[in-house]
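Take one record.
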Amino acid sequence: MPLLRPGGPWIDLGIIALYLGAVTWFGARFRSRPGEGSLKQYFLAGQTVPWWAISLSIVSAETSTLTIIGTPALSYGHNLAFLQVVFGYLIARILISILFLPAYFRGQMFTAYQLMEVRFGERVRKLTAFIFLFTRAMAEGVRVFAISIVISIVLGTGELVSIILIVALTLFYTFEGGMAAVIWTDVLQMGMYVVGALISFFVILHHIPGGWPHLIVEAGAQGKLQVLDFRGGFTAPYTFWAGIIGGCFLTLASHGTDQLIVQRLLSARLESESRKALLASWLVVFFQFTLFLFIGLSLWVLYRDSGLAAPNPLDRLYPAFVWNSLPTGVRGLVIAAILAAAMANLSAALNALASTTVMDIFRPRTGVSQSMALAHGATVFWAFVLVAIGAVAHHWGGVLESGLSIASVTLGLLLGVFLLGVLTKHVGERGAIGGLLIGLATILSVRFGTSIAFTWWVLICSLATFAGGVAASRIFREKAGV
């Protein structure tokens, strides 16, 4: 069946504009009243958020636009092997609940890196904070570019204009409402893009003669339903061992040491609620990845049966189908849902970057009004940085794997030093810094000198950092730590 662009684009543009205006208004409603603002309210939502909202917010931050447009491209070009990485996510969540959450809830912490000061001192706290700021800014820049792909398809605007538009709208409600706005808009927007994905999936099935049974037969015959891949070696990114072990370490780092997720965990009332939110989020993540992988398979069958060539690059596959092939009104809703994912993740990144900048780098000791001014200023600063990075991110390859590989380079450093903090007693500040330097040298050698797949990078880097820290501590003959 040929794919034809239906009429009425102005209806869809109206739906998108209405949604963007509504979510911006909704987020801005969480602004503090005069005299009520505080850093705890701005960065942790006053620790009054229920666990289920935090859980959905974690999912929203974890999946983002990279998932929505990148995951269908993976299954279109390959199979379902990416799910092996998701299996590792569950193991990591259990380990985080055991290793990190108790440490985070022992004191009144705003960021993950305050734990590093308790254990190693102020210099390690600032060093790990700088690593996070670099990692998150680079990875988020890729996500900003990803959403510019969608906007450019819909509006025909250039990449830079598209990037500025989405960042400006998200900045407005993040600036006003802080973490409360981030979490509750996450909940709203996650519901939007899941509904949008389900609608588009069933519409694609309707376009396929024979529907679901035909999809299963065709995809199965070509091996595209394969999930488990037990090949050995370190060069293939989506094997069983790379998924279970590499995915576990990637999530240990991203959810246990990255302020983007840790900030949500710290927003819970109690450690038990934080743990419940973290574990429950995996069920939703697994469902989401499965859904978007099957969207990619359904598009593969549809394009194959129709004799159509896939767009280049493949990252344009899903948003291009939505805008060019779904009925009027439906496509506006689905595109609005994709934008919802982008805004949810971007708002979280802005708040996480601002909280780390304020609490770990500047560490204000002034009054509430001055501290809040600093928080607002940091939020605006990082918005400009993300626009700049997003404008050049199109040179870095496929958006999903680009985002994951950028994070994998430096997240291993954070995980390694955090593991030194919670698993050892004798390693001190000099050992921790020595471990970070050894880990950095190791991961740069792996990244630029080998063909090892990015799914192994966090494991390699964190083990090198941990072992290097232990060795450096013995060389420096450090005494027992905290």
